[in-house]
């Protein structure tokens, strides 16, 4: 997607006789700026409050930090209040710095607000919690059911989003088999997002990894049933996937309907632990694609490993692979015959950020 600034400008200049001159100027500016803004760097996940204070004293407000503090000493007492302060079609990174606290609220970042960072205080991830408790069967004022997608405690629809140092929770506890218990903690629908040291907690459908390319690095995801699901192309590296399943469940339900879709969930160097038993993945759509490489898999994974979601035809088309995993749950002796032990050549496209075209939008 193009830089928002230039997109807004193009809307403004439609029908204008001066548009040629001005749009050229704007595009030139946007491209130069685009190089800086259309990537995610470590800098985007850090806040330097001292520099911010100095800048403000010198009359600048360039570091664009909005402080969320429940004590009232910041710019907002809620996370949503801070998101609301970000201008529409924002074209520079804005950092929302969240001080420790339990924020009982739903947070929504619309697609008109790209380049937002949610940043918790370093090493205080456990104490900085955004939590809500909607589930799919809850009804709205008009009597309609909320549905899975809108149950999310935190929903991000904008591009170039990143988050670090926070916990995102849906506190609904799912009863297996109950109707409408899907309760999403985080939904990420925007393209090109990074999550670093973020904890995502729920039971059923915890993380809706909906659309776009995403990088989850050193994150913790907890749940029991399909707790990472959606249609994205995502790399999960050095993450902990923690099962809270009692009798059955599944980690990944990746949705892919055709061979042409360049999507999939790749788990590299992750640890899978918790209570059992869970499938590594369930085929949502004929071409569901999930790969685990270099993972430590504890005995919480069902020996057969993978489920065709009661659609035997999917056994021929789903792409479920394991490469160089270890631990009791990694034993492939009793795996379904149609899952694959990948060779290095087969695993290679999924092993690093090139899988998510990270060379184009990550500078880490
Ligand atoms: C600095 O910029 C942020 C984001 O644009 C804004 O919310 C904040 O109020 C500004 N602070 C000052 C002191 O102008
Ligand atoms: C956070 O934890 C790491 C590892 O334990 C440590 O190296 C770092 O100094 C800590 N940072 C702060 C701000 O305390
Ligand atoms: C796996 O992750 C650990 C830290 O969690 C790191 O030290 C190690 O280098 C990683 N190995 C690979 C193959 O990426």
From TrEMBL:
Chief localization: secreted
Q: What are the alphabetically sorted keywords of the record?
A: Aspartyl esterase, Cell wall, Hydrolase, Secreted, Signal
What domain of life does the UniProt record list for this protein's source?
Answer: Eukaryota
So what does this thing catalyse? [(1->4)-alpha-D-galacturonosyl methyl ester](n) + n H2O = [(1->4)-alpha-D-galacturonosyl](n) + n methanol + n H(+)
Q: Which GO terms describe its molecular function?
A: pectinesterase activity
User: Which InterPro entries does the UniProt record give?
Assistant: Pectin_lyas_fold, Pectin_lyase_fold/virulence, Pectinesterase_Asp_AS, Pectinesterase_cat
Could you say which residues form the signal peptide? 1-23
Q: In which pathway does it act?
A: Glycan metabolism; pectin degradation; 2-dehydro-3-deoxy-D-gluconate from pectin: step 1/5
| EC number(s) recorded for this UniProt protein | 3.1.1.11
List residues of the Pectinesterase catalytic domain: 66-358
Family matches, as Pfam families:
Pectinesterase
| Biological processes per GO annotation | cell wall modification; pectin catabolic process
Q: Which residues form the active site?
A: 226
Compartments, as annotated in UniProt: Secreted, Cell wall
Q: According to its UniProt record, which protein family does this protein belong to?
A: Belongs to the pectinesterase family.
Indicate what this protein is called per its UniProt record: Pectinesterase
Q: Which organism does this sequence originate in?
A: Rhododendron simsii
């Amino acid at each position: 997607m193009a830089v928002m600034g230039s997109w807004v400008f193009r809307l403004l200049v439609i029908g204008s006789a001066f548009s040629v001159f001005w749009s050229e100027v704007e595009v030139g500016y946007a491209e130069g700026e685009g190089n800086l803004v259309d990537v995610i760097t470590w800098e985007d996940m850090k806040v330097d409050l001292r520099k911010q204070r100095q800048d403000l004293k010198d009359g600048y407000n360039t570091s664009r930090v909005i402080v969320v503090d429940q004590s009232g000493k910041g710019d907002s007492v809620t996370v949503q209040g801070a998101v609301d302060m970000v201008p529409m079609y924002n074209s520079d990174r804005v950092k929302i710095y969240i001080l420790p606290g339990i924020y009982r609220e739903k947070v929504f970042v619309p697609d008109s607000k790209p380049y937002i960072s949610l940043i918790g205080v370093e090493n205080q991830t456990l104490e900085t919690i955004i939590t809500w408790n909607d589930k799919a069967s809850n009804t709205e004022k008009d009597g309609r059911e909320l549905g899975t997608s809108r149950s999310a405690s935190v929903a991000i629809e904008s591009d170039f989003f990143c988050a670090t140092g926070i916990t995102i929770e849906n506190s609904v506890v799912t009863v297996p088999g109950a109707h409408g218990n899907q309760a999403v903690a985080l939904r990420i629908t925007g393209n090109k997002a990074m999550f670093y040291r973020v904890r995502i907690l729920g039971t059923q459908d915890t993380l809706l990894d909906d659309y776009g390319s995403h990088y989850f690095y050193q994150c913790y995801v907890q749940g029991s049933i399909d707790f990472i699901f959606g249609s994205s192309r995502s790399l999960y590296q050095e993450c902990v996937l923690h099962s809270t399943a009692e009798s059955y469940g599944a980690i990944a339900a990746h949705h892919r309907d055709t061979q042409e879709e360049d999507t999939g969930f790749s788990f590299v160097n992750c640890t899978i632990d918790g209570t059992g038993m869970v499938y590594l993945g369930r085929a949502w759509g004929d071409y569901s694609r999930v790969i685990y490489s270099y993972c430590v898999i504890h005995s919480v994974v069902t020996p057969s490993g993978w489920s065709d979601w009661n659609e035997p035809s999917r056994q021929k088309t789903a792409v479920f692979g394991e490469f160089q995993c270890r631990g009791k749950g990694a034993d492939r002796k009793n795996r379904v015959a149609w899952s694959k032990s990948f060779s290095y050549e087969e695993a290679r496209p999924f092993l690093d950020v090139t899988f998510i075209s990270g060379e184009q939008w990550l500078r880490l």
